[in-house]
Design brief:
It is built from 20 helices and seven strands. It is α+β, with helices and mostly antiparallel strands. Among the domains are: about 100 residues, no CATH class; about 80 residues; about 150 residues, Reverse transcriptase/Diguanylate cyclase domain (Alpha-Beta Plaits, 2-Layer Sandwich). Helix 1 packs across helix 2, helix 7 runs antiparallel to helix 8 and helix 13 packs across helix 15.
Length: about 500
């Protein structure tokens, strides 16, 4: 069939169906006739070509709308652009807030528990938008910490190895080498168990940090017992353990003395309330000390019976009160036990993000501190990758927040799979994830990020039987390219925003 035949058939059908001969109606009927006779017309394929140039996600959305011509196609694109603009009104403000949080989070990466405590307090103030006075107080505490911080304790390791070195790895290797000479490991393992048992207080309920640290070291490396300085430290800590026991005994004795004082006061009160005074009791005592021939035993018996009756009444009242107080103490002990269990559970759960089951933000901050320390001390390189779900707000608006949570869970599982044991992945906040890659340069980190991006792009995310097209963007930075871990973290975050702003579903590496 020729083009002229298609034109004639088109005009005939428009007349038969009483359809006005307009350019739009003519074009639609012309393409239908050409398709019916299997004739390919470039102008009729124009809409299809435009759709194929769009991203797979938008193509899926357009298939649901089924536009019949270019006019309907353009109307759909305009409405989509309007929705995207409305959803990004506060994007700049949110970006600035996120940047401020990132900068604040970097100060938590110090190998000192006081610094960690202050950092967590600071983050809480930012999280809940505390007042200005509260921020001023936190600022002063950070200044106090900064001016008093001292890591000279590392110098204490040098005597163990008899070498001059600022490299901790050299010092530790030298210590292990010197202790391996002539040591009976089996004997030391047996002795270490006895030493650990002696370090644990037999009465006191808690061990201070120094005792706990040495116990842990001896469990891990019994060969430390061969070192003379460790032996001296053990002697010192055993004395400290005895001191702890004595302090605990004194504390319990003082508590017992308080109870006895209270009991003494109660007995005096009983005597005061009874019908017999202390003078009467003294008289009875004097009579008992007299010659038995002079005693009026009947009278003495009656008087003692009266005192006994009075004491019995008061003792019953005191017993009831003590029982009530014991019940109260028992209830408090049970509540404390439940709180201790809950606290231990909370500590364990705080390491893992409750929704995605990857590492939590605080755990990531701690692990970043560890790899930074290894970089500074041993030059072990590491890289950071920020991941972020593309168009996550649109997914929530379209399918609901339950669908969004489902996708976050699945994404966490994907990011945590097929990685090295040393690689760490956690949720940094919202739909943003952070990967810490030890012993990895920029090229290796880019490969890691691209692999995860492709897996997510090709993964079937299903919610209630419906497939949701999901992509991620990523930003990559390597520690060796920057002066500090703060700059590295900030650059990886900036590269993430570059990926988002240049089309999404891509990886942007840092450029130095």
């Amino acid at each position: 069939m020729t083009i002229n035949d298609i034109i004639k058939t088109t005009i005939t059908r428009l007349k038969e169906q009483n359809i006005n001969l307009t350019p739009k109606n003519y074009t639609s009927m012309f393409c239908n006739v050409a398709k019916e006779y299997n004739v390919s017309i470039d102008d009729c394929e124009e809409l299809k070509k435009y759709i194929q140039k769009l991203s797979p996600f938008i193509q899926e959305q357009i298939k649901k709308q089924q536009p019949k011509d270019l006019n309907e196609f353009i109307i759909y694109l305009i409405s989509s652009l309007n929705r995207a603009t409305a959803g990004d009104i506060n994007k700049q403000n949110l970006t600035l807030i996120t940047l401020v949080k990132r900068l604040l989070q970097t100060i938590t990466f110090l190998h000192d528990k006081e610094a960690t405590r202050l950092a967590n307090i600071s983050l809480d103030r930012i999280e809940y938008l505390a007042d200005v006075n509260s921020f001023e107080m936190i600022k002063d505490k950070w200044f106090d910490f900064m001016t008093s911080y001292d890591d000279s304790y590392l110098e204490k390791l040098k005597p163990f190895c008899h070498i001059e070195s600022n490299n901790l790895e050299d010092i530790v290797n030298s210590v292990v080498k010197s202790m391996d000479k002539g040591s009976d490991v089996t004997l030391l393992e047996s002795l270490s168990k006895l030493i650990i048992a002696s370090l644990n207080p037999s009465i006191a309920n808690a061990v201070d940090d120094e005792l706990a640290a040495l116990s842990y070291d001896l469990k891990s490396s019994p060969i430390l017992l061969a070192d003379l300085q460790i032996q001296e430290k053990i002697k010192s800590l055993i004395k400290k353990r005895i001191k702890l026991d004595k302090e605990e005994v004194n504390s319990k004795v003082n508590s017992l003395n308080d109870i006895l004082d209270e009991l003494s006061k109660k007995l005096i009160a009983i005597i005061d309330k009874s019908s017999v005074s202390r003078e009467t009791l003294n008289q009875i005592k004097d009579e008992l000390q007299r010659d038995s021939s002079e005693l009026d035993l009947e009278n003495l018996k009656n008087r003692l019976a009266s005192i006994a009756d009075s004491l019995e009444v008061e003792a019953t009242s005191l017993t009831t009160k003590i029982q009530k107080e014991n019940d109260l103490i028992t209830n408090l002990q049970r509540r404390m036990h439940r709180l201790e269990i809950a606290l231990e559970k909370a500590k364990r759960e705080s390491k893992i993000d409750f929704l995605t089951k990857v590492l939590s933000r605080r755990t990531l901050e701690y692990e970043l501190k560890v790899v930074e320390s290894a970089y500074k001390r041993y030059g072990i390189e590491y890289s950071l990758v920020f991941f972020d779900l593309d168009n996550f707000k649109m997914i929530n608006d379209t399918f609901g927040h339950d669908a969004g949570d489902s996708i976050l869970k699945e994404l966490g599982k994907i990011l945590n799979q097929n990685k090295r044991d040393v690689d760490l992945v956690g949720r940094f906040g919202g739909e943003e994830f952070l990967a810490i890659l030890p012993k990895t340069d920029l090229k290796g980190a880019i490969t890691f990020a691209e692999n995860k991006r492709r897996i997510v792009e090709n993964h079937n995310f299903l919610y209630k039987g419906e497939r949701i097209f999901v992509t991620i963007s990523a930003g990559v930075a390597s520690r060796k390219d920057f002066d500090s871990k703060e700059e590295t973290l900030q650059n990886a975050d900036s590269m993430l925003f570059n990926s988002k702003n240049t089309g999404r579903n891509r990886v942007s590496p840092s450029i130095v």
